[in-house]
């Protein structure tokens, strides 16, 4: 089934705005939501140790159906993919003019000078004078939850920060070093399932393609372990479209359904096959992972070859998105 079949459940880049009539003037706001939902199911395959935790030393966990699972909250993956999206826009000179989480509008600047396609997809906010400018993300990330149980997915290792002389003795304090700790990590081979949804037919096809390019094929994730390089391989196993959301768009519901069906989740390929079997019964339109992977590889090849058509498309989108944010926050001219 071609990926174009998903477009009826998406928005249109030329119809991002809704013009409303106020008491004395016409004003702009984001297009009214309509019936349509698109969900990407992404398997995050850990290929080298990764750490997903909050304040505790242990990996964040959650119980699903009475079993303990690894839980990586949405931002553990969204942060890195939002950063990659900014880099894509910078490559094409189509946005990404500020660092992530550092969006500032100076006096005299318009919202469209800083907000871009990445803002549309991943969300952002800024302040200008006494105004607060919030942009809700079109892409709604769920938690990423391990298909395997916590016990078989997590291990730990012992670390110490020795002095330069190789000892644990602090010459200044004349005391043994206290820089001894354990690091918990998610083991290679663990599969985490995450759903990313675009609801309400407000996000255009260009936003979906930008998201797919930002997810890419692999990446470095987890605060402590991302500095060691690529540690997660990404598999978009299906893109599902329908007029309404489905409960299987929650990874918790999907994991429960996989367990009930006795599905094989021993490998990424086996798990992907099992997930596709479930979503094909639940959604009217399902684009299989093989077609999505081909599309991602094609886009990456075009980008690395500095394809003129792709650059022109990004620049055209940048102009329309900039006009959208200007009209929304500055008013219709």
What's the N-to-C terminus distance? Answer: 42 Å
Number of strands: 17
Shape category? globular
- Spans of 5+ residues with little confidence (pLDDT < 50)? none
SSE string, helix = H, strand = E?
A: EEEEEHHEEEEHEEEEEHEEHHEHH
Rg calc:
22 Å
Portion in strands: 25-35%
Mind describing the biggest β-sheet? Answer: 9 strands, antiparallel
- Provide the structure class: alpha+beta
Count of spatially separate domains: 1
User: Helicity range of the residues?
Assistant: 25-40%
Instruction: Give the overall average pLDDT.
Output: 90
Number of helices: 8
Structure report:
The structure is a single chain. Strands 3, 4, 5, 8, 9, 14, 15, 16 and 17 form a nine-stranded antiparallel beta sheet that branches. α1 packs across α4 (205-215). The protein contains eight helices and 17 strands. Helix content is 31%, strand content 27%. The chain is α+β, with helices and mostly antiparallel strands and 333 residues long. The protein is globular and about 70 Å long. β6 (124-128) and β7 (131-135) form a beta hairpin. The protein has one domain.
């Amino acid at each position: 089934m071609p990926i174009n079949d998903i477009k009826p459940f998406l928005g249109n880049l030329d119809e991002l705005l809704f013009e409303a009539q106020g008491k004395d003037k016409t004003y702009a706001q984001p297009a009214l939501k309509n019936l349509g939902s698109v969900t990407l199911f992404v398997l995050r395959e850990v290929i080298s140790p990764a750490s997903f935790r909050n304040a505790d030393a242990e990996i964040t966990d959650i119980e699903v159906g009475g079993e303990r699972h690894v839980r990586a909250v949405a931002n553990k993956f969204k942060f890195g993919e939002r950063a990659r999206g900014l880099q894509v826009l910078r490559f094409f000179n189509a946005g990404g003019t500020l660092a992530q989480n550092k969006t500032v509008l100076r006096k005299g600047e318009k919202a469209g000078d800083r907000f871009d396609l990445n803002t549309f997809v991943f969300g952002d906010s800024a302040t200008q004078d006494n105004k607060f400018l919030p942009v809700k993300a079109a892409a709604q990330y769920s938690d990423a939850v391990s298909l395997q149980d916590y016990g078989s997915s997590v291990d730990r290792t012992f670390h110490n920060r020795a002095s330069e002389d190789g000892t644990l003795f602090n010459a200044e304090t004349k005391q043994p070093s206290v820089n001894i700790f354990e690091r918990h990590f998610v083991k290679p081979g663990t599969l985490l399932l995450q759903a990313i949804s675009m609801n309400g037919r407000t996000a255009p096809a260009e936003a979906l393609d930008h998201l797919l390019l930002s997810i890419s094929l692999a990446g470095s994730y987890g605060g402590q372990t991302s500095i060691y390089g690529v540690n997660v391989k990404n598999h978009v196993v299906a893109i599902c479209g329908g007029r309404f959301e489905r409960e299987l768009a929650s990874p918790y519901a999907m994991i429960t359904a996989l367990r009930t069906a006795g599905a094989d989740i021993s490998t990424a390929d086996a798990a992907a096959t099992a997930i596709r079997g479930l979503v094909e019964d639940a959604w009217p339109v399902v684009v299989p992972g093989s077609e999505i992977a081909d599309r991602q590889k094609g886009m990456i090849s075009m980008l690395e070859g500095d394809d003129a058509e792709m650059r022109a498309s990004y620049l055209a989108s940048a102009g329309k998105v900039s006009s959208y944010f200007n009209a929304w926050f500055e008013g219709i001219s």
